[in-house]
Amino acid sequence: MKPAAFTYHRARTTAGAVGLLTELGDDAKVIAGGQSLVAMMNFRLARPEHLVDITHVEGLAGIRRDGDALHLGALVTHRAVEKADLGDFAVLSRAMRWVGHLPIRTRGTVGGSIAHADATAEWCLLAVLLDARILAESPSGVREIRAVDFFQGPFTTALEPDELIVEIVFPRPAPRAALTEYADRRGDFALVAAAVDLDTDRVVLGGVAPTPVLVEGAGTAAEIAGALELRDEPGISAHYRRGLVRTLVERAREEASRG
Question: Kind of pairing, strands 177-182 and 202-206?
Fold first, then answer.
């Protein structure tokens, strides 16, 4: 299938992109790597009248440390994170092996994944797990949004129509954290994903609710799985999904304990 007709705009600066979003309002979508949006457009699941391309905006593809914090520009690709030596943020690099296939990791961006807000997406789980801050720029300036407040529903976020994600900040190291997931085929969307941080006793689950589910002061894997409100769905029962949660939480904790 082909997407519905749209008007293409190329932004050269952050201010230019924000200006276009302000002018075009709800009829516009931002495109960077395009790995999620283009597929949705091809299936007519998304029909933006305008696309604002930020691929060539300078200053949004950097990876830097500032004290304990790690800053990732919105245009940093999954592959760039996968190849980077992030030290005590290595959980981010290791988690990238679960992101689709190599072409997707090469073109897809951190900011794009966060903005897309798929409840099983690795970046969404990691952002909630590590209490990331999403920095969004608008004509009013830059707003900081905690990840736990950012994801509001299926593919729905706290972003305003005139806001552009410019950076994701992970405020503290996570030397004992891990993410793992299960899909029927390698590279498919996960049926269930689990991320854990042993230092904060946090667990975040994907594929069990419309948004990532944060469990603080987590108990045993069986207790976590048993507390979930799940229902049978076509092709996968609640019992099976609950078993995946239990297994994946245990597996992620084992990996995290190895550092």
Answer: unpaired
- Gyration radius of the chain's alpha carbons: 18
User: CA distances (Å), 230 to each of 192, 208, 239, in order?
Assistant: 12, 7, 8
Total number of domains in the chain = 3
Q: Give per-residue pLDDT as tens, 138-153.
A: 999 999 999 999 999 9
Flag whether the pTM goes above 0.85. Answer: yes
- Domain of 147, CATH number, reads 3.30.465.10
Strands 63-66 and 28-31: unpaired
Give the residue numbers spanning the domain of 201: 177-257
Please report, as a single letter, which amino acid is at residue 90: A
Would residue 2 count as lying in a domain? Answer: no
Look up residue 1 and give its two tokens: 């299938």
- Alpha-helix runs per DSSP H in 32-142: 37-42, 78-83, 90-95, 102-107, 110-116, 122-129
In a domain, 241, yes or no: yes
